[in-house]
Amino acid sequence: MGVHDIASIVRVHIQLLGFHSLTGRNDLCQILKEDPLKLFSLASKSKSNKGIGVDVYQNPSKHQEKATFLLRLGYAKNSDDMSKALKQFRGRGDQLQERFDCLVRAGLESDVVTNMIKQAPSVLNQTKDVLEKKIDYLRSYLGYPLDSVVVFPSYLCYDMDRIHLRFSMYVWLRNKGAAKPRLSLSTILACSDSRFMKYFVAIQPQGPTMWETLKKNLTLKLSWIFSAVTFHKCFMLGAEMLLFGIWRLLFS
């Protein structure tokens, strides 16, 4: 192996120079002499470990907060499950605790919430406001008991557009007598789009028309929300400019 080949390998896999099993230049040279292909094995190991614990160095306090929260949930310290959970959960430890407490205040037992989170970790990646909104929608609009999310915690992970659109279609079918009184959340939300179209839209002659109407109404609703937000921003900007103009008149 020539000097240029060695230089190329080291340049591409520079992390090899800091690999824990290499104590110095002599070790690296020895590996190159005995088994050059071993370098690729070392590089592979290094890449597989890359990213593990990055947060620890970038923000150790944030990492510690999350780890403390996970310990309270029953994760074993320094376990593989703990490492996976640290990557899955987004947010600071206090934010994760706030979301957890939100579910408890809604009426669920702490151990039940813990099991839900282990089944569907993404539940805790929802903000507190979003969790409250989805639970209220479940109870008030859909008329489902809170225990429904215990059986299917992933309900809390779906976006509100999908939840609203699919359940609006289901409620319409139910009122037409074309659907069972209370299907499970997973039956309505977890199926693919094609399956939903087959069993919840095309099942009734007027279904496709109603489905398009619901989608159109949702689009109009989103457009209205966007317009309202834009108007609010423009209004606030105009108010700031007006106040700045008054300030200049008074103090210039």
Automatic annotation (TrEMBL):
Keyword Transcription: yes
Organism lineage: Eukaryota, Viridiplantae, Streptophyta, Embryophyta, Tracheophyta
Source domain of life: Eukaryota
Keywords: Transcription, Transcription regulation, Transcription termination, Transit peptide
Keyword Ion transport carried by entry: no
Protein family membership: Belongs to the mTERF family.
The protein, known as: Uncharacterized protein
Any GO BP annotation: DNA-templated transcription termination
GO MF annotation: an example: nucleic acid binding
Pfam families: mTERF
